[in-house]
Design brief:
- This protein is an all-alpha fold.
- The protein has 17 helices and 4 strands.
- It has helices at residues 10-32, 38-42, 53-62, 65-69, 72-109, 122-152, 158-186, 191-224, 238-244, 247-261, 264-276, 282-289, 291-310, 313-332, 339-367, 373-402, 418-445; strands at residues 116-117, 120-121, 404-407, 413-415.
- The strands form 2 sheets. It has a two-stranded antiparallel sheet. Strands 3-4 form a two-stranded antiparallel ribbon.
- Helix 1 packs parallel to helix 7 (158-186) and helix 5 (72-109) packs across helix 6 (122-152).
Length: 457
């Protein structure tokens, strides 16, 4: 009789997931905590940092700068497949802590410094550098946790587990949007970032704790299932070419970059949109901007469970992309200014934000074998990061140069968001076209995306 492994126990595999989910929750909090503060950052010191929309766009896009231009995500994926989950995850959490520490330092100790670095204000450049280092750690942690779930939940509740992990991570996002402005008003402008730094230290300790369990699981797998990992099943650099030649890779990657470019960069500017166009109070505008994360908390595990039991992943991705078009198109209409409409659209965005990830990430595990998963996820995340770098930078540039319509009572710029929302609508339309193409490819190449994930044999 085969020995029962750790991941055969429902409690152990879900307990392991809970530990790493806390790490990602802290990462998502830090990722989003500065976004609601955009208007406050533009105020002159000492109440703000004196940043422009261009500075904010540069900072926001810096998250993905090293991942894109230094190929850090690619290297992270190769390290993951070569050295495993534990080593890569520990490295990623350390990078997140160091990067956030540098970001906090720049925002608190370099305010008012008149020197420049490569033509950028010193505090903007150093804060962006820290955020970029954090971005490397956060994205590598993301692919590591995704591969961890594929390992611990293969043949079990994989899509549900991925959905739960995404949902719990969104708790961090929602917390960031909800508390950022009130905490900044009550304490210091950078206090929300400091809270994130403390949480990340806790997340690093949590991942180190998970590593103990994962090491024990590996020993059990070596003892009872050596035949599952023969030499020809181990990663080699030839696998990169195999991944890149797979049509499913390019379709998933394109859908990923287009879809997430309509969500994450939009949320970075959504708080200001809520305040300037829809007249929502700044004390709650961040909370409404974070509604997609709150929706994901409840809906992603539900949709993940549906994919596990009934399949239809390709169809779900088409539906989610179509919903994005409606949301951004209505936001672009200049004559629609009702606050309740803005809130309803955020709820719909939250549903779409739950549908697509719950179907997309488990689909990757169907398209590629286990020994290629880390690199496949890394390459997809790399392409996604091109959008996460380019789109916020583009939107910040467009706002700064084409959308200023006045000055607020606080002395900061007031913007018309019609043009930026048209840009987001265009990306949403492209994501729908790619989702349809993926559904066609699923039938042609037999990826089985429409089939259930749970193996009942």
């Amino acid at each position: 009789m085969e020995q029962k492994k750790l991941n055969d126990s429902w409690g152990m595999r879900w307990g392991a997931l809970a530990i790493v989910a806390f790490t990602m929750m802290a990462a998502y909090y830090v990722n989003d905590v500065v976004a609601p503060l955009k208007s406050m950052l533009e105020a002159a010191p000492p109440s703000g940092l004196g940043w422009s929309s261009g500075d904010f766009g540069l900072f926001t896009g810096a998250y993905s700068f090293l991942n894109v231009f230094c190929l850090m995500l690619i290297w992270g994926g190769l390290i993951l497949d070569k050295f495993g989950i534990r080593f890569t995850g520990k490295l990623a959490t350390i990078l997140m802590v160091l990067g956030t520490g540098l970001e906090y330092y720049a925002m608190t100790n370099m305010v008012g410094v008149t020197s420049t670095i490569l033509g950028y204000k010193s505090d903007v450049f150093i804060a962006s550098a820290g955020y970029s280092i954090f971005g490397v750690g956060a994205e590598v942690a993301g692919i590591t946790v995704t591969k961890m779930i594929a390992k611990w939940f293969r043949g079990k509740e994989m899509a549900t587990a991925m959905g739960v992990q995404v949902a719990l991570a969104r708790v961090g996002s929602q917390a960031a949007y909800a508390v950022s402005i009130p905490v900044a008003r009550t304490c210091e402008l950078t206090t929300p970032v400091l809270i994130g730094l403390v949480c990340l230290v806790g997340g690093m300790i949590a991942f180190f704790s998970f590593s103990v369990l994962d090491k024990k699981l590996d020993k059990q797998m070596e003892e009872t299932a050596k035949k599952e990992t023969p030499d020809d099943e181990k990663f080699s650099f030839k696998d990169v070419a195999a991944i890149l030649s797979n049509p499913g890779f390019w379709l998933i990657a394109l859908l990923c970059v287009l879809f997430y470019s309509c969500v994450f960069p939009f949320q970075k500017f959504a708080t200001e949109l809520m305040i300037s166009k829809y007249g929502i109070s700044e004390t709650v505008a961040g909370t409404f901007a974070g509604l997609p994360a709150l929706g994901a908390l409840f809906l992603t595990p539900i949709f993940g469970g549906m994919v596990d039991k009934r399949g239809k992943a390709a169809s779900i991705m088409v539906l989610g992309a179509a919903m994005l078009i409606g949301v951004h198109f209505v936001y672009a209409l200049p004559f629609v200014t009702g606050s309740w409409i803005a809130i309803v659209l955020m709820i719909i965005l939250g549903i779409a934000f739950s549908l697509v990830p719950s179907a997309m990430w488990p689909s990757v595990a169907k398209i590629f074998p286990a020994h290629q998963l880390g690199t496949a996820y890394a390459l997809i995340f790399f392409i996604q990061n091109i959008g996460l770098w380019g789109v916020p930078t583009l939107i910040g540039y467009v706002l700064q140069n084409y959308c200023i319509v006045g000055i607020t009572e606080a002395g900061t710029n007031q913007y018309n968001y019609t043009l930026p929302m048209c840009i987001f609508t265009g990306f949403a339309i492209l994501s729908l076209l790619v989702a349809f193409a993926l559904k066609v490819a699923d039938k042609k190449f037999g990826y089985h995306l429409e089939e259930a994930n749970i193996n009942h044999n």
